[in-house]
Design brief:
Distance between the termini: 27 Å
Largest sheet: 7 strands, mixed
Helix content: 25-40%
Number of helices: 4
Radius of gyration: 15 Å
Strand content: 25-35%
Structural class: alpha+beta
Amino acid sequence: MELRPAEIQDAEAIVSVINAAFQQAESFFIDRDRIDLESVRQLFQKGSFLVADELGRLRGCVYVEIRSNRSYLGLLSVDPQHQKSGLGSQLMTAAEEYGAKAGCGHMDLQIVSVREELPRFYRRRGYIETGTAPFPADLTPKLPCHFVKMSKPLT
């Protein structure tokens, strides 16, 4: 498995991996794809995707955006057939290293409050809760939810 920066040609495969992973994890509270091709292309303009490539097939990805002296991590996704293999942690480490090499002092992220397994995963990696944010008004979740913001020092 090779971890590498994504290229724009990877956009369709990135959409597939993200939607498969989020469909499995989030279908209990929201009925829709997590992302579309145009959104991924727009994210390439603001940040970078790091991908796990196994012989030309993307098995996972993570989005990293440099925001001044902080970095933001999002869309951590692992193909459902490769989950619980440690690949998510490998992608997290690669994203954190990417942010640190860019001179960022912290990595920020946000998770959906109803994903009860996520706070433990991120706390084990050194993240702490720093606040909340509202769930987008244009989405209609099946359950009340909000975002939980988390952050970790990279130095």
